């Protein structure tokens, strides 16, 4: 479609280095062409042109003093992408590889993901090029405090509500919320992912991984299957990966692997509950590496995608599965890709997988459980009423089922559901309808 091609060319001319952002826009816009063709107002009101420009980009210096007394300088960002359906909402990522491109891609994706949850949340994302690996707790605290010294001016419970992402877990949110509270003089829901002891929701830390598996269960059920005995390969060993593994084991699926940026851990007969508990302790408490774990087969420098499995669950980072990995998965007869991470499968890999009948369950739907429970945390903060873990988990299950059903409805092909397209159309439609209602804004 000409309008879509013109915009794709326009953003690659204007922002030639923002490759992840181009990829994210291309994937969404090409999928929603059937919807745009039936809605003249999308072109008439320049909805696509407006959707690719963030409402605003905030970029700032984070200078801070490390434990040795040295001053270090990092770059921080917050991309407030689109608040058509609610206050900006989306995580903060601390990783040395990030740039404005990363946050534009993530903020754009977040806008449609949040729309799928049916909760009132717009899209935003942010973070810093800070590398927390090997840092002392004191350094992490100083950095988080310095980051919030600037960020607090741009957030608030009804305006922009950040949360965690890669490199930002409960510890970092605690340091940042402490500083936010001090600077603003307010105790409110301006950040989610807080500890339940000071306003956080139970199940928030589990929500993304659990939600991913609830989504998968719905998709399997739609196809007349279930999880029992299914072999699963997981990448990553962080928040999403570990909780996805926990839920899979609980459902009697076989978890064959976890990985980190240095290698993968292979459990030929499936990981046991006890082994997973030890890995939780290694990663969350000791903050160690998978290579330090003595059980399982540690494969130095190797990704897990060559391990034969029925279900692949990428939970590390973007573009983990490209053409080569996709071909290996196809050769090994993998039937489902469950994107726990954001955009872990490249567009080309998705094409190859779809052509071979592999179902790709897209991140913006699969991992929306995290932001959904963040939304529920906002509700609890606004009403001053904490919910029980059971209540949050039930609500999470309901939301994941609804997102699954929205994706099914959005798929043009009803014989073989295209979940990627279904998610894109359902999310896009909600945001576009709100933007059209506001006129030219
Ligand atoms: P964590 O920081 O807890 O864990 C990330 C894991 O991925 C680590 O094991 C890390 O290994 C690995 N990893 C990171 N970068 C790379 C890389 N370039 N190559 C190989 N491995 C890598 O992050 P989360 O689990 O929170 O997030 C994982 C993904 O899920 C991200 O895409 C995130 O955006 C997405 N997501 C997270 C949500 C949440 O609630 N946490 C919500 C929705 C999406 P190492 O330690 O070696 O770096």
Description:
By secondary structure, the chain is an alpha/beta fold. Among the domains are: 135 residues, Leucine Dehydrogenase, chain A, domain 1 (Rossmann fold, 3-Layer(aba) Sandwich), CATH 3.40.50.10860; 162 residues, Rossmann fold. 48% of the residues lie in helices and 16% in strands. It is built from 17 helices and twelve strands. The strands form two sheets. Strands 9-8-7-6-10-11-12 form a seven-stranded mixed β-sheet. A hairpin with a 2-residue loop joins β7 and β8. α1 runs antiparallel to α2. It is globular. The two termini are 25 Å apart. The relative contact order is 0.12. The model has no long low-confidence stretch (mean pLDDT 97). The structure holds NADPH dihydro-nicotinamide-adenine-dinucleotide phosphate.
Features:
441 residues, alpha/beta, Rossmann fold, 7-stranded mixed beta sheet, 5-stranded mixed beta sheet, 12 strands, 48% helix, globular, binds NADPH dihydro-nicotinamide-adenine-dinucleotide phosphate
Helices, strands, pairings?
Elements lengths: L1 H13 L4 H13 L1 H5 L2 H5 L2 H5 L4 E10 L5 E12 L5 E7 L5 H17 L5 E7 L8 H15 L8 E4 L6 H15 L19 H19 L8 E5 L3 H12 L3 E7 L2 E4 L6 H13 L11 E4 L10 E4 L8 H9 L4 E3 L8 H9 L3 E3 L1 H4 L1 H16 L5 H22 L8 H19 L4
Parallel strand pairs: 3-4, 3-5, 6-7, 6-10, 10-11, 11-12
Antiparallel strand pairs: 1-2, 2-4, 7-8, 8-9
Helix pairs in contact: 1-2, 2-6, 2-17, 6-17, 7-8, 9-10, 9-15, 9-16, 10-11, 12-13, 15-16, 16-17
């Amino acid at each position: 479609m000409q309008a879509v091609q013109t915009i794709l060319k326009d953003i690659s001319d204007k922002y030639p280095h923002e490759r992840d952002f181009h990829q994210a826009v291309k994937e969404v816009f090409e999928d929603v062409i059937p919807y745009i063709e039936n809605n003249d107002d999308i072109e008439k009101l320049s909805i696509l042109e407006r959707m690719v420009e963030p409402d605003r980009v905030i970029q700032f210096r984070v200078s801070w003093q490390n434990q040795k007394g040295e001053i270090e300088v990092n770059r921080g960002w917050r991309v407030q992408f689109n608040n058509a359906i609610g206050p900006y909402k989306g995580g903060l990522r601390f990783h040395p590889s990030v740039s404005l491109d990363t946050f534009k891609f993530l903020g754009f994706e977040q806008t449609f993901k949040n729309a799928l949850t049916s909760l009132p949340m717009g899209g935003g994302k942010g973070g810093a090029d800070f590398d927390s690996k090997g840092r002392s707790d004191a350094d992490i605290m100083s950095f988080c405090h310095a980051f919030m010294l600037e960020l607090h001016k741009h957030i608030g419970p009804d305006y922009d509500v950040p949360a965690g992402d890669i490199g930002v877990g409960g510890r970092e949110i605690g340091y940042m919320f402490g500083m936010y509270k001090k600077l603003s003089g307010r105790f409110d829901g301006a950040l989610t992912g807080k500890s339940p002891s000071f306003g956080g929701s139970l199940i928030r830390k589990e929500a993304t991984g659990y939600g991913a598996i609830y989504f998968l269960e719905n998709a399997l059920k739609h196809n007349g299957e279930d999880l029992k005995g299914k072999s699963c390969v997981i990448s990553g060993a962080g928040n999403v990966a570990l909780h996805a593994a926990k839920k899979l084991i609980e459902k009697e699926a076989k978890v064959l692997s976890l990985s980190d940026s240095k290698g993968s851990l292979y459990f030929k007969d499936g990981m046991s509950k006890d082994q997973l508990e030890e890995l939780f302790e290694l990663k969350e408490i000791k903050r160690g590496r998978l290579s330090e774990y003595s059980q399982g087969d540690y494969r130095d420098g190797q990704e897990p995608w060559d391990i034969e499995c029925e279900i692949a669950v990428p939970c590390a980072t973007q573009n983990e599965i490209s053409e080569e990995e996709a071909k290996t998965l196809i050769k090994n007869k993998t039937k489902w890709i469950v994107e726990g991470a954001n955009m872990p499968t490249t567009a080309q890999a998705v094409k190859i997988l779809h052509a071979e009948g592999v179902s790709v369950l897209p991140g913006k739907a699969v991992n929306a459980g995290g932001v959904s429970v963040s939304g529920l945390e906002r509700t609890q903060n606004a009403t001053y009423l904490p919910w029980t873990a059971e209540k949050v988990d039930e609500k999470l299950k309901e939301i994941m089922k609804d997102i699954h059903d929205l994706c099914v409805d959005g798929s043009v092909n009803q014989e073989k559901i295209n979940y990627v397209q279904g998610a894109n159309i359902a999310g896009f439609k909600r945001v576009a309808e709100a933007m059209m209602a506001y006129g030219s804004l």
